[in-house]
Amino acid sequence: MIADRYNKISVNLRRSVAEKLVKMKILICVKQVPEITDVKINPETGTLIREGVDSILNPFCEYAVEMGLELERHYGDIETVAISMGPPQASSALIRCLEMGVDRATLLADMRFAGSDTWATAFTLAQAIRAMEGDFDLILVGKQAIDGDTAQVGPELSEILGIPQIMYAVSVELTGNKKKIRAKREIETGNEIMEIKLPGLVSLSKGPMIRSVSSFKEILDARKKELRVATASDLNIDENELGLGGSLTQVVKIFPPQVKKTGKLVDGSEPQGAAKKLIGFLRERKFV
Amino acid sequence: MHEIISEIVDSVDFKGIRCIKGYNEIARDYSSYLCDESKLAHQGAQYLFFPANEGELSAIFQEMAKRDVKITISGARTGLVGGAVPYGGAIVSLEKFDKILGLRYDNRLKEWLVKAECGVTIRDLNNWAMKKVFPGLSEGGSAETKAFLERYKESKTTYFYPPDPTEMGAALGGTVSTNASGARTYRYGPTRNWVRCIRVMLASGEVLEIPRGKCFATPAGEFTIIDSKGNETGVKIPRHTMPSTKNAAGIFSAPNMDLIDLFIGSEGIFGAITEVEIALQKWHNPVSIVQFLPSDDKAIDSVVALRKEKSIRPEFIEFYSSHALDLLRNKQDEDPKVVGMPPIPDYAKSAVFFDLRFDPESKDNDYSKLEEIVCTCGSTLAKSWAGYEQRDLERFKNFRHVLPETVNSIIAERKKKIPELYKLGTDLAVPDQALEKIWAFYKSKLEKAGLEWVAFGHIGNNHIHINIIPRSLEEMKEGLSIYREFAKKAVSLGGTISAEHGIGKIKKEFFSIMFSDKELKEMKAVKIALDPGLILNPGNMLNI
Ligand SMILES: Cc1cc2nc3c(=O)[nH]c(=O)nc-3n(C[C@H](O)[C@H](O)[C@H](O)COP(=O)(O)OP(=O)(O)OC[C@H]3O[C@@H](n4cnc5c(N)ncnc54)[C@H](O)[C@@H]3O)c2cc1C
Ligand SMILES: Cc1cc2nc3c(=O)[nH]c(=O)nc-3n(C[C@H](O)[C@H](O)[C@H](O)COP(=O)(O)OP(=O)(O)OC[C@H]3O[C@@H](n4cnc5c(N)ncnc54)[C@H](O)[C@@H]3O)c2cc1C
Fold first, then answer.
1. Which of B365, B367, B387 sits opposite A213 (nearest CB)?
2. Interface predicted TM-score of the whole assembly (ipTM), two decimals
């Protein structure tokens, strides 16, 4: 009996050592955003009007989660972890990740994080990853958050952690015996294939055309998975580097861009005349 | 009390009322007032009125009666049986009756009540109730109403109006006069259950205010209406028994019935409903679940089991037959965006769709009973789709709507080749214990005939819509005769020929399957008593 038990323990030990050796770890940074198609800004305070607006998982972050899970399905033996910095209610975005199939999640919630700019956000995320996750293979982020919209947090995070990055990926594959990642990324002139060594960071700009749906079982099970809430004290971080104090930038004013109506419309009801006018215009400006 | 007094309303000069005269102008500029969603062919109209208050409506009724011009009452014209389609005479659109009149908490009934004019849409009513803003009430309401409004806003509870005919653009008055139902009728009953008071303008131009619970029929089944001049009209209620299902066929009848119920569901043949007071219900956040099952029969089993298990209380239970899922799969192949859902899994051979109360914050949601039922029916909760975020609830709702829309588009396409073709959609319901029987009957008949068909809809109320999609005129003829057989079978099982769409002008031929000549005569007698000139809604429900 005792021998049996020892055997089991040693088998378990061996397996966990083996898991450490082979199991990849993908960290997915996600942000909760207001569900807005039409952004409304309070003209007096310059902040987003969030009243009466539902909060959702940022769509580009959802693509990152989809990609992490797709890699897990395809290559197996991958642990997926979602991390978010935000107020306590941002846990619902993490629960959504758990429903989608992510293994566990961590919420960085602390009043001291409030007011972070993109740098402070990236720095806090980096410190949290260092303090709580240790070794990892890949970080996935969304191309941008649909509220802040800067697309800065991903690149900053990779710089702070000193790992290579690929931005705006639309598809990825693991290469070089899972030691590298190769991504197709969108650039203005078309597509580009890029490969980096792992650990690295990839931001996603595309996902499935139709958002995935969870089963009711996944929704119920998600609520039993690990959702850790960490505060500034859990991170090895100097108070001055947090939140508003740790922010390098400050938003002075937010205003909608002025719509410039400088376009010139050529009446196309008479195609030949219109074409002539157009050519005349282009010649005048020395375009042709 | 079985007596009620009708009042005269402040009279208005008929000449000042907005009116479009002559068929040509109506057909040219106001053609949408000539049809409803049934697309039934109209028989023209000479006048189109837009009264804005009871005074104007009364003047129109009196003047038309004098000229012996019949009147068709027009709500939002979303009806499916041609009720608002004119057969000559005048159209009276009630769209200008669009104001919210009051909000109050009734201490005796322990519920919030909203009073509105008949033209307010169900969509607006629900949005206002849920968002707690009632346009016009805070400025125009009485001090008492304002105080109630404050209290309503401060309450942490969200309220809603349960009747949900799929077409939320329907007007309140239209839904009351058709006793509209929807998916939620499963849990909350039809419109009738939520109406607390109505004002009805009779053909005479006088108005009855009928609160629920005040005016009941005598044991002999009579009401007496006394007009402003003291003339008495006796109304003898019909004696037919109502089917014990959700029902929109025929006028309401029950021993000692409330007068308000005579008007609810009467399709406007007794009078025009001008104002309605309705009750609100507490709203709970739901999760929408589409549970896939291995066969149609297992889906039926799951419905029977879900209804039996009292600890699970779905808001509604809807059905997608195996053929319905196939049709949606085809649609997904064509354009996945229209369906808005990931591919329907191959293992899915039918589905039931329901909403359950759900607290996303809670860790100890217990749905073990549901799991048991689903497993007994050959599936698991892993074989489902579920969502609770607002955008998902809307997506699931859309998934319910794309099916009838897909059927309609197939028919429209076939109509291009054979213009006489139309969709054959049933609206039959049976009592709970007859669900399995009627399903077996539907399926055997349809499969034997080799027709193209799908089944979907309000299975929680045993109200499955069978849609036959004919490919030829022969198939349509065959479909029609099968439809008749279905109607007879439903009635023989204690059901109804129309669970929610009503009779209007296009379901009258089925009326005689459900009611005897004597019963129809009794209904006609009510009509003659209340509208002796037979002015209102000619051609609707009764042939007189
Ligand atoms: C102009 C402007 C004004 C702002 N004003 C205020 C303000 O007044 N008050 C205030 O509190 N905040 C404000 N912020 C918010 C804050 O600075 C940013 O939201 C935050 O730093 C992330 O930047 P972003 O939203 O542009 O994300 P992006 O850089 O666009 O996000 C890219 C990706 O980075 C990851 N990511 C981003 N944020 C997080 C996060 N919190 N946790 C985990 N992953 C994340 C996600 O994967 C995301 O898809 C403002 C931001 C901007 C740009
Ligand atoms: C896509 C679609 C789905 C639908 N789904 C459902 C459903 O699930 N359940 C359901 O019950 N119905 C359904 N309907 C039918 C329709 O929406 C309802 O019957 C609705 O109650 C009709 O309201 P309305 O204001 O459009 O009435 P109208 O179509 O204008 O009129 C209907 C009848 O009521 C009379 N009427 C209208 N207003 C008044 C009034 N103020 N006083 C007296 N009589 C009046 C009219 O003369 C007519 O006979 C659906 C319709 C569509 C197009």
1. B387
2. 0.89
